[in-house]
Amino acid sequence: MAPGRILASLLDRHCGNPRQRAGECRALLFAHLQERLALPEELTSAAFWSLLERIDAEFDQRVTSNPRSHSDDEFLAVHARFREARRELIGLELDRRLFGLSDELLQLPQRVGELARDSRMPLEQKLAVYQDALHRIEEEHQVRLVSVMEPVELAKHELSLRQSAEVLGAEQRREVLERYTGPEYARRYLDYHQEQQSLSERLKAFNQERESMLKQWASESSPEQLRQRMLAVDQHLFEKYDLQ
């Protein structure tokens, strides 16, 4: 998003005293990025950091200070305009090398959502399109997605596609999660979400029963009587729904 500040924070954390070693650390980081991303040889370290500062300023102007960016529905549209301004600033090829992967990852959930909502496309085709997109990103950017994304996020994308076409049982969910995350993480993830679902259901039942009793006694009790009654009710319901 704001790459200059992101890299500057890395320098502050890993380069000791930034005032004494800032220049050296910036040069080393630029050299690594130049080799890793095959940046143009004529691009100097000073020019690189200057470009990032200008990109940060564009991000502040077009995204951070834009109230529309706070809406999930409008954020991608706001970011798309920022991306166009960024490309005009540094050129398409350099933009692709520096930000192509991050742009892909930012847009991936939207693409998955569009696939999930396409009622005309068979499930197997949706899954094939999703896997093709993952392979393309890895090949184009020479990276393993599990090294830059949480594997569970990749699994959740596939689960959302499958859930758009069929009701998934616990075993089906486990199989998908295990394929991306391994059996131990999948077990912990599913156990945690099962616990959260159970807690949510118990809280809902607690609130419904408490509200019913409150309505029943409100008209026939004084405020003090109602308070005392509800204290006893709350203790009983906490125990009943295992909310201690």
Automatic annotation (TrEMBL):
It is a single-pass membrane protein. It holds the Pfam family Lipase_chap. Belongs to the lipase chaperone family. The keyword Metal-binding does not apply. One of its GO terms (biological process) is protein folding. This is Lipase helper protein. Keywords: Cell inner membrane, Cell membrane, Chaperone, Lipid degradation, Lipid metabolism, Membrane, Transmembrane, Transmembrane helix. InterPro entries: Lipase_chaperone (IPR004961). It is found in: Cell inner membrane. GO terms for cellular component: plasma membrane. GO terms for molecular function: unfolded protein binding.
